[in-house]
Amino acid sequence: MENRKLKNSELDRKSVEEFKEASKTPIIVILDNIRSLNNIGSVFRTADAFLIQKIYLCGITAQPPHKDIQKTALGATETVAWEYAEDVLELVEQLQKDNIKIFSIEQAEGSIMLNDFQPQQEETMAVVFGNEVKGVQQSVVSASDGIIEIPQLGSKHSLNIAVSTGVVLWDLFVKISSIRE
């Protein structure tokens, strides 16, 4: 079997307009004080891949347009809806008032392992990813409706924010897709 690689023109990708009109996965991503512009761009690109509803950029998290974000986002800042919110805790409280469940992605007491977590049908959820060094702020962890932890079996205690986002969004996307079927 040859298994010829597909050309970009054969991938049947959505245009910017088609993306904006497409039904979205009911997930909101909140970036809490992310320092790396490349990580921010990677999160946009991952959010585009899974038709994520929206990204909130909070605190010191940089905003598009910026060349280092664009370098890794590859245009995803034009497709994925995003908004800046200075205070992540105020944003969390507002989203909760709008009946959106907030889940911090963190290692904390009472966390549920990602592989054991089951999203609720017909519910929009927001997942909070924290600073590369300090993680999600304790006040946000405390205000969250739940804490989801990525199982890790090696000697390191954390994953890069872009990798964490990819792991979590893929897992949730698959689970939500199976609920919808």
From TrEMBL:
One of its GO terms (biological process) is methylation. The keyword Nucleotide-binding does not apply. Signal peptide: none annotated. Keywords: Methyltransferase, Transferase. InterPro entries: Alpha/beta_knot_MTases, rRNA_MeTrfase_TrmH, SpoU_MeTrfase, tRNA_m1G_MTases_N. GO terms for molecular function: methyltransferase activity. Residues 27-170 form the tRNA/rRNA methyltransferase SpoU type domain. The keyword Methyltransferase applies. This is RNA methyltransferase. The lineage of its organism: Bacteria, Pseudomonadati, Bacteroidota, Flavobacteriia, Flavobacteriales.
